[in-house]
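[agent] plan:
  1. take the single chain provided in the ticket
  2. run structure prediction with default settings
  3. attach structure tokens to the ticket
  4. add a short note for the reviewer (M.T.)
[agent] executing step 1
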Amino acid sequence: MPEVMVQGARLSYDTAGPEHAPVLMLSHALGTSRELFDDQFAAFSDRFRVIRHDMRGHGKSGSPAGEYAIAELGSDVLRILDEVGAERAHVVGVSLGGLTTMWLAIHAPARIGKIVLANTAGRVGSREHWQARIDQVRANGFAAIAEAAPARWFTPRFVAGRPETVAAYQAMLSACDREGYSGCCAALRDADVRPDLARITAPTLIVTGISDPVCPPSDAAYLRERIRGAGYLELDAAHYSNVERAGEFTEATLQFLGG
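[agent] step 2 finished; step 3 output follows
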């Protein structure tokens, strides 16, 4: 798979779809990888030139030492777009990926087309929460977090009915690099784009899960109130709505993007 170096970070990505089609960048959640979009990848790449990458410390990407900032994660996306020769791209982001997408829409509007903000917020959690997560992972690894995480990611119905999928996401989390994951937690600890949401002019679709305990519908409503003209979709899901309600998510995204 192709790679690019960005400020000391070795980033892995893949592409699919017609070479001259509009570009669509997919940005995943903390503790996952590009595989978060496996249920969407084929349908999206039928109509778009799709790029999906692994964030620092995730999947096949490297983990530069130190804490990361949301500006670095956004700049990583822009560098990958440069590498593939894409002047402009639509972006679909989930959770941390959605926060990164908002940063891009605010700070690099000329590079960004339409955006889908899924299960995310202008401010995710608290500084204290993310610092505690950093301390826990650095001291003890992922075992305890991976055991408790499905209750945040998926509804009880999905956990009971799709245990193999739940186990795959637990394994994805456990495979993260400890320092790289902690670096991304620092980006979440420090990032707050709420004061700048009114600067977003990109056509926007906000997707929320009605049972999402991480970024609840109230967070999505906050975004909707402050991003002019934003569309809004509630799905019967928890935090990974694009997995739990894959068909509905894919259909709504394609309709929004005009694919």
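[agent] step 4 note for reviewer: Residues 6 and 76 are 6 Å apart (CA to CA).
[agent] ticket updated
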